[in-house]
Structures
1.
Amino acid sequence: MASIELRSVSRIFGAGAQAIRAVDRIDLRVEDGEFMIFLGPSGCGKSTTLRMIAGLEPVSEGELLIDGVRVNDIDPAERDLAIVFQNYALYPHMSVRKNMAFGLKLRGMAEAEIGSRIARVAETLGVEALLDRRPAQLSGGQRQRVALGRALVREPRAFLLDEPLSNLDAKLRSVMRTELIKLHRTLGTTMIHVTHDQVEAMTMGTRICIMRGGEIVQVGRPQDVYREPVDTFVAGFLATPPMNLLPARLDVADGALRLRIEGQEIALPLASRPGWARHAGRDVILGLRPEDLHEAPVGAATAALDCTIETVEALGPETILTLRLGRDGTELAARLPPEGDWRIGAALRLHADTSKLHLFDPETTRSIPGN
Amino acid sequence: MERRDRRFGWMLSAPGLLLLGAVVLFPIVWAGLTSFFDYTLLMPGYDSFVGIGNYRMAAGQGEFLHSAWITLLFVVAVVAIQFVIGMVVALALNDARRGKSVYYLILLCPLLINPVVVGLMWRMILHPTLGIVNWLLGTVGIAPVNWLGAPDMAFWTVVLVDIWHQVSFMVVLLLAGLSALPTEPYEAARCDGATAFQRFWHITLPLMRPVIIVTLLIRMIFAIKTYDIIYIMTRGGPGVATDLISYFIYRRAFVSLDLGQACAMAVMLLVVIAGMTAMLWRAMRQVGE
Amino acid sequence: MRPHILIPFGAFAMGAGAVQAQSINILMEAVPDTTYVQELLPEFEEATGIDVNLEVVNYAEMHTKLVPQLVSNSGSYSAIVVDFYWVGEFYRAGWMQPLDDRIEADGFDTSVYVPAMMDLVGEVEGTTYMLPFYNYAMGLLYRTDLLEDEANRTAWKEEHGSELRPPETWDEYRDQVAFFTKDGIYGVVNQGLRPDPIAMEWSNYLFAHGGTFMDETWHATFNSDEGVAALKAYIANIDQYGPVGAASFSFDEAFNVFSQGQAYSYITYNFFRAAVDDPSQSSVAGAAEIMGVPGPTPGEGGSLNGAWGWAIPRSSPDPDAAWEFLKWVESPEIAKRRALMGGSPTRLDVFDDAEVIAEYPQTEALKELLLGAHNFPTFTYTPQFVEVLGRELSLAVAGEKSAREALDAAAEEFDALAERDGRRG
């Protein structure tokens, strides 16, 4: 059980003019028992950060604390954390049982205790039948379970998961996702899970830490990050299809906010977003989630947008439409109920839920607060 | 269809197999045959069959048995020390980020030198009164070392020279094996709490097992055949301290001209090498399981 | 105009003739005497039209290279050079052609050779198989500058009551070895490497102590009290009066110690005498001389004989051309010219030649040395005996056996080899 704290931590590769800051002065506190997700595109520094926590990468600058103790110079062996790697990193020459026992033996644990721990974990993960096999004789999913098992038997202070599900096929991935969530609930141990998959991020974590270019962009509970992205990057990264981002111009007239979007206009009462008034007369980016577009007006706070249908993806429980604003304007997506008769090339009037609108500053890409 | 493929395969490999048979098998069979005759170069011919007489004579000959014993010591010393040095150097080089090719080049240099030249070179360097080594030792007040003139010392000198000459073979092979190892298990082991030595012992050694087997085997067989260095440096002396078996057999064939006995000894050596190979192979496999 | 047309024709005809039949191969050792032959070869080729290809290799390779060619019915060497200790083996295997008929037909005079040379590398059992090529009898190289040094002379006289001079007996030499071992100089440097360097060198010690290798009936006698004394003296020289490591020296390493001025004396092959005066390889040029190894009394020598002979192998592809070459290379004129270039003669007429003596004043000493030299036993198993003797001597030097044990072991094997060779009649 551990809290993990990063204080202005950097990882710098190279030196002098060629120095690259793979992780740039990040501050983060992962609470004890939390399931923290590091989310971001590849190269954003999320894996490097995890490896610094594990002790596999040195901390170039700043301080790393586990349970309030500075561990910058502590050997990974003594941090008592377990890491699960993307490519499993099993010991190829050892049986599954030995793979799991290795870390325990090194710690001088009694054989009996090792045996009972392995039995327990093997049962949890359903790998009892595989204990005497070599990694080469296992499927990808089985290997992943074993890798997880190797971490579990250790009963460490925290689990570090480095994209552990990305090599699995879609079905297995969702199964393992559920199992990890259950595991976290049962164990209550701190977990940090690195991923670039926003579904994993949204479903598994108690909090998400979104990173880009070695910096943390936003940290928060999944719903909060989803609902209130701090900038266009977060807005565009979470969820598929992501938030629609439309160039617009904001004006205030007659006590109303008026957004002109490629010749169409959305109006909403000034009182609902008084903060936006400060950006009146300027270009802005309008953010609109696909699920906030509807075929029919939703209550009073709706605004109509005329579009043209470009593609139709019927997914079963819902249908995703890709559209053009007007006839051939900016592309946007809408998430609609499955039933409907849509033809490609046809015109379609959509109704946006104006209470769910986001505005971003095109220069800073930051969100413009409504109040 | 499949059978035709197979026949075609045999046809393709037949010339190679025949050539191999002619080049490799023929001399062995010839030596085996000759070992049962009183065949000398003075009177070459298969007129007098002596059965296992040559073998019995060799086995009862003190000098031959002594040579075999010395050779065993030599092989064990040379291969063991070379393996340890080779492993340490290879591990160090494997971690080197820069200049690996330069190290490679420097390391390969001794290996590229003809063993005769190596022997002559070291005889000069180790010359007790005129050589540079004893001169250097003298500058720090160490009395001249009798490198090749005292029995025990001569044995270890030859061992050292052979190590100098051949150790890079170990380094290069082991290094190739090390750099082909996956890195992930090491990181997993670090998190599992393994020290550097434990990682070496539990990860590197087992993963390197096939490379180590092959390297040890090749080196061992080369070491058993060591001849040039002995010929140049000691001629088996002083006394019989460095009288390795290959040099012994060579003299039996080309000084005594007694091919029958030389062949018998060579066949015995072959059997021993084959046996050692099989034993090592099995031992290493058991360790792995 | 005419000569211009004719010359290429003539050259063509000569070239074709030479290629067709008259071309002979000879395997030789890389030593100074081979170089002298090489330099004179163009004259032979011009005179006879026979091309001679000398294949020059190290001693170590010679026997190994020769044997397969000699065993086969048609070898690649028309003529060969034979080291004295292969003679018995080559004779026994029938690898050499008798030369008597050719000698008689051409009236070649073999009486001018030093008799010991003819015994060693000329005749076997009354038949001539070889012509002696050059000798490498061993002698005592010693430092004249040390003998002439006033301080040394005074000290010696105080110690021994006699004049310091080149030793006349072994005992005198032994005292000098002890006397000169001081001030960073060694009394002697030895060549203790197995097998031939130590076996050959120790033979001098054996003869100098009045010992012999065997009696008339081919029974070993070198394990006598004289032999044991000789071996003990040899060990004492290495251990007490020589440089560290002499037990493993080959002759070149031992010579280096001597030529760097670090030793008073060195018993070695006489061809090193010329090298001593070569400033490029010696720092004692003009300060060393050679003499026969002193024996038990002033009249007796203790030197070991050694020589190479020319022979025509039975497998020679062109024995006639080979004989032409032998006749030429051993003719009085060429033999003398080789000696003038620095060669080691085998013929008395060359030893006595005024021009040669004028060029090399040590020639007379070398003749004395040769006349007083003793032969090594030559029989079928000489190489094997050298092997055995070298091993046992080396064991004694290494302290693994006593002198007596080592010599007894070698003597036992010698008797067995002689027996096997049918020497017991």
2.
Amino acid sequence: MATSSDKSKDAKLNTFRGGPDERGHFGIFGGRFVAETLMPLILDLEKAYNEAKADPAFKAQLDYLNTYYSGRPSPLYFAERLTEHLGGAKIYLKRDELNHTGSHKINNCLGQILLAKRMGKTRIIAETGAGQHGVAVATVCARFGLPCEIFMGATDVQRQKPNVARMHMLKAKVNPVTSGAGTLKDAMNEALRDWVTNVHDTYYIIGTAAGPHPYPELVRDFQSIIGKEVREQMQAAEGRLPDTLVACIGGGSNAIGLFHPFLDDESVKIYGVEAGGHGIDVENGHAASMTGGRPGVLHGNRTYLLQDAEGQILEGHSISAGLDYPGVGPEHSWLRDTGRVTYVPATDKEALDAFQLCAQLEGIIPALEPAHALAFVTKLAPTLPKDNLLVMNMCGRGDKDVFAVAGYLGMDI
Amino acid sequence: MTKETRIDRRFAKLKREGRKGLVTFITAGDPDLETSKKLLLGLPKAGADVIELGMPFSDPMADGPAIQASSLRALKAGQKMRDTLAMVAEFRKQDDDTPIVLMGYYNPIYVYPNAQFITDAVAAGVDGLIVVDLPPEADDELCVPATAAGLNFIRLTTPTTDSKRLPAVLSNTSGFLYYVSITGITGTAAPDVNNVQKHVQRIKAATTLPVAVGFGVKTPDQAKALGQVADAVVVGSALVGALEKSLDSDGRSTSKTVPAVLDLVGSLAAALRAA
């Protein structure tokens, strides 16, 4: 929860949607903390993105792909039985798990592959945790005929096998990363090492709203289609804005996509749900960087990080391969400190319970990532009045997690 | 302009003697604090003209496998920033001439935090800083206050640093300029001497600072060849690689560890002196 001193800073802000500044800062967060080899490229990318934003042809092409390739707009679905069961807020699910490839990640990948083409890049690399981003990158690379290599922690390769198989079918090369704990942070280090080596022809499609400027901004912009659609869809369904927004946070791209168009609507309460793992009190047992970390610099940006007293980065833990990243997008760090968004943790166990609840009440098998958001919804919704319109972003489907969850639940398959 | 530092004096001396400098990199605390102290103390006699002392970091994004492993060994052995600074202070009691440049990534400095780090580094006898992930765009954070406190802030310039970018890289840089001879991570591809020469000439046209060349320099022959086109040659991965090979099967230091590194420094220095 935000403290009153945090809140007092709000008074000076006319808008929460004005960031980043020209140096890529959201308050003290963000920036461009990269090796000099990458700096010219980062500056080129910023220029290319600004040109693309101003080009109607770019927007038209992206709109076309979103509609006919990805299947947007995704429905805003009234979850009637979940609402009844929880007995409070009226719960809507933004069905981004119905997108082509099964998650919100495609929104960003379509935008970035068009940008890569504009910049004349001929090779694509990416990091992936749960494999959702990797699959989305492999998909757009197949669609646009560019070779791609995906860096994925060796631990994640093991626990997300269906997505690894999908990437292979899409002709992507998957490089298992064994350094560190072999999860998302290590995959990102390896992707950066590849990029710095192949900077002349390679475009790096970062999967979340983090990394050096302009990535946090451009990923947010491509994902903001989620929140823009929700505004229109809620207007059509209920004739007004929602009251409450909830989304899960790893790096935070689905969340910032839902939140950003609503940041200046004061009546809308916004919650981001981090991976509480074994519990926030368990040292190195969670991935809740904003609840249990402090500001630091990693992977090109200043943001909340899980780190020890010496500034060494901790691995973090989550049942969800998509959330166990020790950092978070810099805009979230800023929204936390300004008090505009409230960030809360949900544990592995709470997420597993919510996963089953959603499957059994709504016939929707969620990914473990949005199951964290739902876990918080099960606590929050009963405390809210029945006319409170709550939107949760169902940012991914659970097909990839079927084997892992069956294992956790002791099911014999 | 900052006042003259040990780095300035060392490069002036190299110039007077008409020879090229050897810049050596080791990671502080690798494979353990005691061995690392012995290495540090032995480097000047073995032929190191400038010492880069790595501040270990959990996520060395610009480094190849050799320095990644070196960093992790040091952290596993419990190396802290205070230990690294104390190593420099102890070294200074015996050697007041050989420059020491601390090299690493920003986060361990940022959380120290910056102002205290600068104070403690100056007090320990550190001469310069190389912070891989702090570009000129972030100079106000560490570079400007560190320079004001008398430290040299040494910048990396790379094959992707074009003429448009070079002035930004040169601004606020002092001591020397570190030319990264390849696009890539440390200790991987071998640099092409002709290519390096072209870049160094371009840099020299824009600055009077000495230029050291590094990344991928492994053998005395390579050092000798690069010494002909630059003011100094940096060797790192090869040294920590030699260190790694000398360890026992549990990754512990052996009687061969210190000589393995210092002997390689000796042959690199001899090759450069013959250049």
